[in-house]
Write a structure and sequence with these properties.
It is globular, with a radius of gyration of 22 Å. The longest helix has 21 residues. Strand 16 and strand 17 form a beta hairpin. It has 535 residues and is an alpha+beta fold. The chain has one domain: Gamma-glutamyltranspeptidase, small (S) subunit (Glutamine Phosphoribosylpyrophosphate, subunit 1, domain 1), CATH 3.60.20. It is built from 18 helices and 21 strands. The strands form five sheets. It has a seven-stranded antiparallel β-sheet.
Length: 535
């Protein structure tokens, strides 16, 4: 890489971390240490990623759970592999059925927005194809934390309270189990308090011992089916039985000699690639200029405008990904960027909650993995007797029957989670990601440009103050964002709002880069409780 490892222009609580044998970077220290423990036991980067991911369902339940989705990019044997473990909508759901039931839109919470959860299938599939250690052994750290409990970390405690305050306004019977599991004392756990979930542990044991078959075609699927039947939901054991994760070919663009990789739709990594494809036609002499920020924001707006219109389950897309990533299309969109802010026409982006992790080992394997329940704890539902908190990805469907991303039976929705990966000259540079709903493509753009255009080391690339385009001409900025640039953006027609630093507002990222000598350089950021665990 071209960056100076000692150059760090931004205030930071953390230093970049180096290692040789292995590295795990994620948003919760216990989960990172669990992944490192697996590496030291002889596991590879894939085993470490699975251990970390399953552990995060316990130690960071505010952002992900057993009932969520996952995507992965795996570098193994000099090739990048993509895994899409997002699930489809139930076969019995439809816009017509919801309208008949009196709905005018897809609710955020409850039974209706729950699609088939894909995360357990991702863990089992990754282990089956790439893992070295037994699946049961890899899940043991998560099982132990669920059984024995752990002290809740500070940012997780804050997010836990936000979830509690959100769900306590809904007294419907089906939400009761969420409070039994996540607020057993009638309140969310404060930082430092021990929280445990024996039912969560039992469920993880069942998944571990059956390679996730119990979740999709066994006792856990039966419990999910009974729960949804009891409260008039649409998800069924038949939906669970039919599900399989998909190995997919990752998509990329070349940005100034580096290949930037993402998972193809239904994920929206395409937004980041389209925006970078537009921006590569400009020259950027410096990072901290109004022209740099203006063009970044405009490119993201244009990419979102297209992807919010076209991205959905790839079987239902009306335009090809390669057409959206073509140089000719990028040139047309680039030509729309002038001196003043544009008024785009995408759907309104909303917040999200996700976990991201990156792993690497001494054998050359590297993993970029992302897992989510969406909007914090997700649907607000926990399957009784299991500790399975269910996501609400179906909320991303359109209720407009003419839209490409309209709700239909057995269809995957537009999905916000996206792992990233960087290569150069067919060699791995490494995994990167920034979680947080619709900030994710914007965070990926900033990380790539901070690294490639402005030569920032991984820690500086994550610490740099962020912006987030929200809708129309509105852009939120962090407190440390330069005031003179904010004022200049306002003069160009942007509506700039200076917001508080928020874990989900501006994302939480992780990076692991590897140099030509095999040395690993890792970073996490001050927007999270994260750590880089090394060996």
């Amino acid at each position: 890489m071209q960056y100076d490892p000692l150059y760090h222009p931004y205030p930071s609580r953390r230093s970049m971390v180096f290692a040789k044998k292995g590295m795990v970077a994620t948003s919760q220290p216990l989960a990172a240490q669990a992944g490192l423990e697996i590496l030291k036991k002889g596991g590879n980067a894939i085993d470490a990623a699975i251990a970390t991911a399953t552990c995060l369902t316990v130690v960071e339940p505010t952002s992900n759970g057993i009932g969520g989705d996952a995507f992965a990019l795996v570098w193994s044997q000099d090739k990048l592999h993509g895994l899409n473990a997002s699930g489809p909508s139930p076969q019995k759901i439809s816009i017509e059925a919801l309208k008949k039931a009196g709905h005018q839109e897809i609710p955020k919470y409850g039974m209706i927005p729950v699609t088939v959860p894909g995360a357990p299938s991702a863990w089992a599939e990754l282990s089956k194809r790439f893992g070295k250690l037994p699946f049961v052994e890899v899940l043991m750290p998560a099982i132990e934390y669920a059984e024995e409990g752990f002290p809740v970390s500070p940012i997780i405690s804050k997010l836990w309270k936000e979830g509690f305050d959100n769900y306590k306004t809904d007294q419907a019977e089906e939400f009761k189990c969420w409070f039994e599991v996540f607020a057993p004392q009638g309140k969310p756990p404060p930082a430092g308090e021990i929280w445990r979930s024996p039912r969560h542990a039992a469920t993880l044991k069942s998944i571990a011992e059956t390679n996730a078959e119990a979740f999709y075609r066994g006792e856990l699927a039966e419990k999910i089916d009974v729960f949804f039947k009891q409260y008039g939901g649409y998800l069924s054991k038949e939906d669970m039985e039919a599900y399989q994760p998909e190995w997919v070919e990752p998509i990329k663009i070349n940005y100034r000699g580096y290949d930037v990789w993402e998972i193809p739709p239904n994920g929206h990594g395409l937004v980041a690639l389209m925006a970078l494809n537009i921006l590569k036609g400009f020259d950027f002499s410096a990072k901290e200029t109004v022209d740099t920020y203006h063009k970044q924001i405009e490119a993201i707006k244009l990419a979102f405008a297209d992807c919010r219109k076209y991205v959905t389950d790839p079987r239902h897309m009306t335009i090809k990904v390669e057409d959206l990533l073509s140089d000719s299309f990028a040139a047309k969109r680039r030509g729309l960027i002038g001196k003043q802010a544009l008024q785009p026409t995408p759907g309104r982006p909303t917040g999200g909650s996700t976990v991201y992790l990156a792993t690497a080992d001494s054998e050359g394997n590297m993993v970029s993995f992302i897992q989510s329940n969406y909007m914090g704890f997700g649907s607000g539902l926990v399957v009784p007797g299991t500790g399975i908190s269910l996501h609400n990805r179906g909320h991303n469907f359109s209720f407009n029957s003419a839209h490409d991303n309209r709700l239909e039976p057995g269809k995957k929705p537009y999905h916000t989670i996206m792992p990233g990966f960087l290569t150069k000259d067919n060699e791995a540079v490494g995994p990167f990601g920034v979680m947080g709903g619709f900030i994710q493509p914007q965070g990926h753009l900033m990380v790539v440009m901070n690294t490639v255009d402005f030569h920032l080391n991984p820690q500086a690339a994550l610490d740099a103050p962020r912006w987030q385009w929200v809708e129309g001409k509105t852009v939120d900025i962090e407190p440390l964002f330069p005031e003179y640039i904010a004022e200049a953006l306002n003069r160009r027609g942007h509506v700039v709002r200076r917001g508080a630093v928020g874990a989900t507002t501006f994302g939480r990222g992780q990076i692991i880069w590897r140099n030509s000598e095999g040395i690993l350089a890792g970073a996490t950021e001050p927007r999270t409780d994260g750590v880089v665990a090394v060996w």
